[in-house]
């Protein structure tokens, strides 16, 4: 039995760090588990250009001073991305890609694209400059059943976009369906996917377990068991197209437990322990290293970290809540015991 894992410092390839008091708390959680993280641009005022990304980078660096942690910035896809701006993005060592949200699909996405095809001119320039496109892959059509929105997005938009721009590197973020795993597996090496802990742990029953569970609500919403199993199989398969991205997305408790609760699950504080627990429960602990520390870096053409972390088999209790400003965040697996501890060397 493996009781200890020493692996290169992992990368969180999909993370929300927010701003203000929240940023202060959650950035240090990520910095204590990960060496790098791809930071989402969906702030209240979205990060729409390189200048704003560099400002946000500086903020994150201030809050994570003393940690060996590098934020990898993203730009919020918008129609003002001219060739000149795209060249700045490509030239910046701090920016790794552009994140596209269909308008209104999730938290702070009101400035997202209305029609997917309207992005084609920009996709073409990104393809030429080899700037990766990160996609929240759900249709924003409220008439489409919420459990089908990822599948329909792939069928209606993604397959075609990949054909039109075969050299554009695309990450389908936080995949939640069997359909997504199949699409990614069958596409060229330019297509990859990030995988969250919640989509590995739970199916949609979790949302209604003994009552309505706002802290299990995220987007894409949890799906049927067959989809969870397919996403889990992809994560532990050793296929380099699938890599770690927590989508840790903190919201204050009062905003989750509300008449219109926000989508997003917070996992950053114990993320590596939780992934280790999941891989171990599925007899695949030896597959964690590449999933967390290699495949994502390779896809983004980054070198693997030379620093290491240690994961130990040991009892570990996830806190019930975490204080932020005058409120709390309820984390993934709150109050539960798991069998792995991270991260000293
Ligand atoms: C994210 C958030 O809160 O910013 N929420 C979520 O449920 N995943 C946005 C996102 O990634 O969709
Ligand atoms: Zn996200």
CATH-derived architecture: Alpha-Beta Barrel
Q: What's the helix count?
A: 12
- When the domains are counted, the total is 1
* Helix/sheet category: alpha/beta
CA-based gyration radius = 19 Å
Separation, N- and C-terminal Cα atoms? 20 Å
| Mean of pLDDT | 97
- Sheet with most strands: 8 strands, parallel
- DSSP strand (E) fraction? 15-25%
Q: Report the count of strand segments.
A: 13
Q: What is the CATH class?
A: Alpha Beta
Might you state the CATH topology name? Answer: TIM Barrel
In what order do the strands lie side by side in the largest sheet? Answer: 2-3-4-5-6-7-8-9
What coarse outline follows from CA principal-axis ratios? Answer: globular
Q: Secondary-structure element order, as H and E?
A: EEHEHEHEHEHEHEHHEHHHHEEEE
Identify the bound ligands.
Answer: N-carbamoyl-L-aspartate, zinc ion
Instruction: Report the uncertain regions.
Output: none
Helix percent band: 25-40%
The CATH homology group name = Metal-dependent hydrolases
Describe this structure in words.
This protein has 345 residues and is α/β, with parallel strands linked by helices. The chain has one domain (4-344): TIM Barrel. Helix content is 33%, strand content 18%. The strands form 3 sheets. The chain has an 8-stranded parallel sheet. Strands 1-10-13 form a 3-stranded antiparallel sheet. α3 packs parallel to α4 (120-129) and α6 runs parallel beside α8. The mean pLDDT is 97. Zinc ion (ZN) binds next to loops.
